[in-house]
């Protein structure tokens, strides 16, 4: 309606938004609009209404009941009465989420292309058959020694090309006949006359009639690689001579067109250790004849990478003529021949790492033994460095209740979180002090909180040792919770025994005083005659003394200085015996009503 309340909605509206009709009807339509779009949407409709417009079109984000958002296109017809007042807004809403997603993807794609074009390290260009430069990215402009594209574009490639040894006419003829050129390597001359080496790929873009519109391509500066290859070729002989004097091994292979690798040369040090000459290896089928059979797939993969132009490093085993298995770390580098369009040579060096591997295997065996012993120990074993937990045995994990995730990611677990907060900073400071070589206790007891909230007491023994060049700590913690509970029970018993002794001593002295009081009370009773008031007072003294004597007897029984004799008591009689005393204590303004229970069972 004119106030923006929803008075009608099609079934599709409610199914699409997830609302029930009663949740939307006669409520503001803005409930379906994303909060950030409401203000401008209201302003748009107010402006269009004030202008007298009959239709409004807009796009905004709609809000579903589940909180999800969708882009919609809304077409509104403004219905007015004869006086021109707005009666209602009739809206047709269409989901345009797919279109918006496509627009966003297109925008991102254009941005990626622009970013790639401007920032890619290789040169990109577009030229016409008559030699005009239509486009060149910043990398190509810089590669050719120009400051701006405008300066480069003033040059006509038909009149003044960049490849002195390769006329543009031949380039154009090959490109138009073959349709593309891939991996052409040549020397280009820069603006200042210096020479760079470039690997170029290009294609001819034609119209429907087959007429060439332009050429587009890439140019990669390979000057460093070409220079390095020349230097490598020049130094190869020097490299071979030096390799002969080292204890490890160096080699070179020729690569045939079918991918077969033939030995070119091999350092004498390899022959001395493995017993194979390069001729003997060739007769055995090449280098694979000396490979330890289980490692053959690994070495084949290594060779495949290098044959495809990728330098690679791997570790594996070879077998000597005498049958000894030795470990090698091999560094292999391919040499690419641009004319042949493939790798034609492989040079490399191998480092004998047999002793290193034996040490690693011994270390792993030692670690396995440590883990086995630690997991069998009836105590928690922890290895820490700083606040990081490096290792925890099974007992420790089960004690504190590690989750499965923490069992797999121990280094992400802060073990100090388990320490009782009252002790946490003290333990942390001890750990740091110990790693700095400062004095710190190596034995202490402290409580922790397990994952289920239980409090456990542990007896820690801590030692410091180097780990990966930094100090680390190993803590062995014995669960002494039961021992602590026994100590507390013993302490409580000792306290109770002390209290009992005190109570017995007091009761014994008090009992002696009561005997005197009761004796004098009996004498008073004998001399009181028949005076009822006097007799009542004396009886009160005797009754209170008797009850005090009973209390004394109980204290002596508690102190175990008098044997306990259980007696049957009538509660009505016992309570009734205190009434006279209570009446005098309460005073005349208080009425005490005593109703003894009938058929009350006696107690012991």
UniProtKB/TrEMBL annotation:
Origin superkingdom: Bacteria
SMART domains linked to this entry: HisKA, PAC, PAS
PROSITE patterns: PAC, PAS
Reaction(s) catalysed by this chain's protein: ATP + protein L-histidine = ADP + protein N-phospho-L-histidine
Residue span(s) of domain PAS: 1-53, 109-159
Pfam families: PAS, PAS_3, PAS_8
Biological processes per GO annotation: regulation of DNA-templated transcription
GO molecular function, one term: phosphorelay sensor kinase activity
InterPro entries recorded: HisK_dim/P_dom, HisK_dim/P_sf, PAC, PAS, PAS-assoc_C, PAS-like_dom_sf, PAS_fold, PAS_fold_3
PANTHER family associated with the record: PAC DOMAIN-CONTAINING PROTEIN, PHYTOCHROME-LIKE PROTEIN CPH1
Protein name: histidine kinase
Protein's organism: Thermoanaerobaculum aquaticum
Lineage, top ranks: Bacteria, Pseudomonadati, Acidobacteriota, Thermoanaerobaculia, Thermoanaerobaculales
């Amino acid at each position: 309606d004119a106030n923006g309340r929803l008075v009608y909605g099609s079934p599709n509206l409610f199914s699409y938004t997830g609302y029930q009709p009663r949740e939307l009807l006669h409520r503001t339509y803005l409930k379906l609009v994303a909060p950030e779009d409401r203000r401008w949407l209201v302003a748009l409709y107010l402006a269009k209404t004030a202008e007298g417009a009959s239709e409004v079109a807009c796009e905004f984000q709609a809000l579903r009941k589940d909180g999800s958002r969708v882009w919609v296109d809304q077409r509104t017809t403004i219905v007015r009465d004869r006086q021109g007042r707005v009666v209602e807004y009739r809206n047709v809403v269409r989901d345009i989420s797919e279109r918006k997603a496509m627009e966003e993807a297109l925008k991102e794609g254009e941005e990626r292309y622009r970013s790639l074009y401007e920032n890619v390290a290789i040169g990109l260009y577009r030229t016409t058959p008559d030699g005009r430069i239509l486009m060149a990215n910043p990398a190509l402009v810089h590669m050719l020694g120009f400051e701006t594209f405008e300066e480069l574009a003033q040059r006509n490639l038909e009149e003044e090309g960049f490849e002195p040894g390769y006329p543009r006419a031949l380039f154009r003829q090959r490109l138009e006949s073959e349709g593309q050129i891939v991996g052409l390597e040549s020397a280009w001359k820069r603006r200042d006359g210096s020479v760079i080496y470039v690997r170029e790929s290009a294609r001819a873009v034609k119209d429907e009639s087959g007429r060439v519109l332009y050429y587009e391509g890439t140019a990669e500066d390979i000057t460093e690689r070409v220079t390095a290859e020349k230097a490598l070729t020049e130094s190869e002989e020097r490299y071979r001579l030096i390799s002969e004097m080292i204890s490890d091994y160096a080699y070179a292979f020729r690569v045939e067109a079918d991918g077969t690798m033939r030995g070119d040369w091999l350092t004498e040090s390899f022959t001395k250790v493995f017993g194979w000459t390069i001729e003997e290896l060739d007769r055995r089928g090449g280098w694979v004849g000396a490979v330890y059979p289980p490692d053959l797939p690994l070495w084949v993969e290594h060779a495949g990478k290098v044959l495809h132009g990728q330098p690679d490093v791997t570790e594996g085993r070879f077998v000597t003529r005498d049958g000894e298995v030795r470990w090698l770390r091999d560094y292999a580098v391919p040499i690419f021949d641009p004319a042949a369009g493939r790798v034609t040579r492989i040079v490399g060096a191998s480092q004998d790492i047999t002793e290193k591997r034996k040490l690693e295997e011994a270390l792993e065996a030692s670690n396995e033994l440590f883990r086995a012993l630690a997991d069998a120990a009836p105590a928690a074993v922890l290895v820490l460095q700083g606040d990081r937990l490096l290792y925890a045995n099974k007992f420790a994990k089960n004690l504190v209740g590690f989750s499965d995730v923490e069992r797999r990611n121990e280094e992400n677990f802060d073990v100090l979180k388990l320490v009782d907060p009252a002790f946490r900073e003290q333990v942390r400071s001890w750990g740091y002090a110990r790693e700095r070589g400062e004095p710190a206790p190596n034995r202490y007891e402290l409580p922790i909180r397990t994952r289920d909230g239980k409090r456990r007491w542990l007896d820690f023994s801590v030692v410091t040792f180097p780990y990966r060049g930094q100090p680390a700590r190993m803590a062995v913690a014995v669960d002494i919770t039961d021992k602590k509970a026994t100590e507390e029970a013993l302490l409580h018993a000792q306290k109770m025994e002390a209290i009992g002794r005190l109570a017995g001593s007091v009761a014994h002295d008090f009992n002696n005083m009561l005997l005197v009081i009761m004796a004098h009370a009996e004498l008073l009773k004998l001399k009181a005659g028949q005076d009822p008031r006097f007799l009542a007072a004396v009886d009160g003294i005797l009754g209170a003394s008797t009850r005090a004597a009973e209390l004394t007897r109980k204290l002596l029984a508690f102190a175990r200085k008098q044997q306990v004799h259980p007696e049957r008591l009538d509660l009505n009689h016992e309570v009734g015996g205190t009434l006279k005393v209570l009446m005098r204590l309460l005073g005349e303004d208080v009425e005490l009503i005593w109703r003894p229970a009938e058929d009350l069972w006696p107690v012991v």
